[in-house]
Design goal:
It is a single chain. This protein is α+β, with helices and mostly antiparallel strands. Among the domains are: 2-59; 320-377, no CATH class. 45% of the residues lie in helices and 20% in strands. It is built from 16 helices and 16 strands. It has helices spanning 37-55, 65-75, 83-95, 103-114, 119-130, 136-166, 234-245, 261-269, 285-292, 318-341, 370-377, 393-401, 404-414, 427-453, 460-467, 492-501, and strands spanning 2-7, 13-19, 26-34, 76-81, 172-181, 205-212, 218-225, 251-254, 273-278, 301-305, 311-316, 358-361, 365-368, 382-387, 471-476, 483-488. The strands form 4 sheets. An 8-stranded mixed beta sheet has the order 7-6-5-8-9-14-11-10, sandwiched between helices. It has a 3-stranded antiparallel beta sheet with strand order 1-2-3, covered by helices on one side. Strand 15 and strand 16 form a beta hairpin. Helix 3 crosses helix 14 (427-453), helix 4 crosses helix 14 (427-453) and helix 6 (136-166) packs across helix 14 (427-453). The chain is elongated.
Length: 503
């Protein structure tokens, strides 16, 4: 609404309050009319006052703006990051982790998602950005408590929530193992040098075995000596998981790296069904010959019966064949370059990688073996799966394809959650550290699921980054001293996130 002067034919000026809220000018009130300029000015002021009283508008004295702003700033007691607590804390509670009574557990989990650093730096982050005061010794004492009394409860909460998400009992699980190194040189009973998947062979390490469900939701984990053969880690994790949740039927999907005759026999004797990646080139001579006699086209599969009664599923993919050929050609070019420079020696004539394509002629001449290259190319595009299930070939291949979820879990844990290097020395604190990371990954996966469910284009990483920019201002009213708090949301991406998760 606004005040309008309207000159009439009589020579008088009418002062009117005009409304245009409906797209047309409408006279709401006529304040009066006059030919006298002083009376007209008084009528204008009267009209403006009427508008303010009607709409509740308060006139701001801009001459006092600086003083008011200074008073406002002086009333602020703190400005803290609140977005992670609103976003991730809400998910943490919805999963059920708030059943763990210690507030420090929640703080450590959310910090691992937002600012994954050492425990000392975590205490600094909590103090500086959240106003939460805790020292390093308190964190270590809590880690002892977490591992001793709460670790099993954490995994149970995660398991029950996964059942709700999947809306079914767990019947298929996926298992894999990775290595986690330590920035030390000394070994102990747990931390030992071994084959490192991260190329950190000089560092002591541990093995981490992880069990996930369809969709990649974490179910259980355990740690093992760094020098242990990774294939020997699977049965302890599976048996404990099955006993804990009283599961009668369970099928496990695992990578070829965990394949061994003893593992398959143990799975069979313990009543497990399994789908395990096959190493086709290490099958028996008869089986290898049968595989190479197959004439599969793109996407086609075939089935062979192994000597132990299990099924060997063979699948061919043109895209996989092209990739296999490309990898071999790049390796051949590298070997040819080394041959020209004379850098290859007798010690490199072995079956490691593409060195298997070399041969030694006479006693000194090392060269590429054209026959081995031709034989190797016959395996391009072939992928094998060993199983004792009654699933169809397509169901077996489809189930095995979900293993990328556990590879993604390890990638997220090692990069986004900075799971390693691990700085703890005592085993129970190492286990507590992994429990924090396990919980953080569960919250991450639920955030990922909710974003997809809400059809958001945001990734979990982007959502967390946005949340970290949302602050809360804590202040006190100047007269009463009453504390007040206000969440500050100013950008479109902050509003979008707040609307998505209703905070």
């Amino acid at each position: 609404m606004f005040v309008r002067r309207k000159k009439n034919q009589s020579g008088l000026v009418s002062i009117q309050v005009i409304d245009k809220s409906r797209g047309k000018y409408r006279v709401v009130k006529t304040m009066g009319s006059s030919a006298d300029e002083q009376q007209i000015a008084a009528l204008v002021v009267k009209g403006e006052l009427w508008i303010r009283e009607r709409t509740g508008t308060v006139e701001f004295d801009f001459e006092q703006a600086d003083a008011l702003f200074d008073r406002f700033v002086a009333s602020i007691s703190s400005i803290r990051i609140i977005g992670p607590s609103l976003l991730l804390g809400g998910i943490f509670d919805a999963i059920g982790f708030n059943a763990i009574p210690d507030e420090l557990f929640r703080k450590l989990v959310l910090a691992r998602l937002c600012y994954p650093v050492s425990k000392l730096k975590t205490t600094e982050y909590l103090r500086r950005y959240e106003g939460y005061i805790v020292d390093e010794d308190q964190v270590y004492r809590y880690l002892d408590k977490l591992n001793k009394t709460q670790k099993r409860q954490v995994q149970c909460i995660s398991y029950k929530h996964t059942l709700q998400v999947l809306n079914q009992q767990i019947s298929v699980v996926f298992y894999d193992v990775t290595t986690l190194y330590f920035e030390i040189k000394q070994e102990d009973k747990l931390r030992k040098a071994g084959f490192s998947k991260e190329g950190r062979h000089q560092n002591p390490q541990i093995l981490l075995g992880l069990l996930v469900s369809a969709g990649g939701y974490p179910l259980a984990y355990d740690i093992f000596q760094g020098s242990k053969f990774e294939g020997h880690t699977m049965m302890p994790v599976l048996n404990l998981f099955r006993r804990k949740y009283k599961l009668s039927q369970l099928a496990v999907v695992a990578d070829a790296g965990l394949l061994s005759g003893s593992n398959i026999e143990a799975l069979r004797l313990n009543g497990y069904q399994y789908i395990i990646g096959a190493r086709l080139k290490t099958e028996s001579a008869g089986t290898r010959a049968a595989i190479l006699r197959l004439t599969l086209k793109d996407g086609q599969s075939a089935e062979l019966l192994r000597d132990d009664g299990s099924r060997l599923i063979i699948n061919y993919a043109q895209a996989r064949a092209l990739k296999d050929n490309d990898n071999r050609q790049r390796a051949i070019r590298r070997l040819e370059k080394l041959l020209k420079t004379g850098k290859l020696t007798k010690s490199q004539i072995n079956n490691k990688g593409y060195n298997r394509l070399l041969k030694m002629e006479g006693e000194i001449n090392i060269m590429l073996d054209a026959q081995k290259i031709a034989i190797d190319s016959r395996w391009d595009g072939l992928k094998g799966y060993i199983t004792n299930t009654t699933l169809t070939m397509q169901e077996i291949i489809s189930n095995y394809s979900h293993l990328w979820q556990i590879e993604k879990a390890f990638r997220i844990a090692k990069t986004d959650l900075n799971l390693r290097p691990i700085y703890h020395r005592l085993q129970h604190r190492i286990e507590a550290h992994l429990c924090i990371a396990f919980t953080a990954y569960k919250v991450y996966k639920e955030l990922e699921r909710l974003l997809k469910e809400k059809k958001s284009t945001l990734s979990p990483e982007k959502a967390i980054e946005i949340a970290k920019t949302i602050y809360c201002i804590h202040a006190r009213k100047p007269k009463s001293g009453q504390p007040i708090a206000k969440v500050v949301i100013t950008t479109d991406e902050q509003r979008n996130l707040a609307d998505l998760f209703n905070f």
